[in-house]
Amino acid sequence: MADVFLSYSSRDRAAAERVQEALTARGIDVFWDQATPPGQDWDTWIRSKLASCKVAIVLWSRDSVKSDNVRHEALVARKAKKLLPAMIDSIEAEDLPMGLYVVRTARGSRGWSQRSRTVSASGRRARSRRPAASRSVGSTGWAWR
Question: Structure pTM?
Fold first, then answer.
C-alpha cells in the first residue's frame, strides 16, 4: 500500500516525476500509474490504489482540469477525506472542476522537497489539525517547476 496516490495529467508527467522523486527521497511510498499490470483492469487497479492510499495529491494544471480521470480521482479522494490538491499552473478559481473549488490548494515558488515533510513516511499529515493545503502558503509555498 502506497502512502501517497499521485494524480496528474499525462501531459504533466515531468512535474509529477519531480514530486514523486522528492517524496520518495524522504522515504514516502508514492503510487503513480506507470503501467497497468498485464491482465489487470485499469479502472479496478486505479480504484484499489486510491482506496488504499493515505493521501491523494492531485496536481492541478491547465491540462489536468480538463482530464476526466484526474477530476474523478480528485472527487473520490475528497469524498474519502484524502485529498491534498496542489497547483502546478496558474489557474483561475472558475477553471477548477465543479465541487473542488472550495478545497484549498497549495501553490507557490519553492521546491517540493521543502514541503514534502507535510506527509510523513507513514503517510500521515503534519501534526497540525488542518491539512497542509488549508494552511496559508505564503512565500514558502510549493512549486513543481
Answer: 0.71
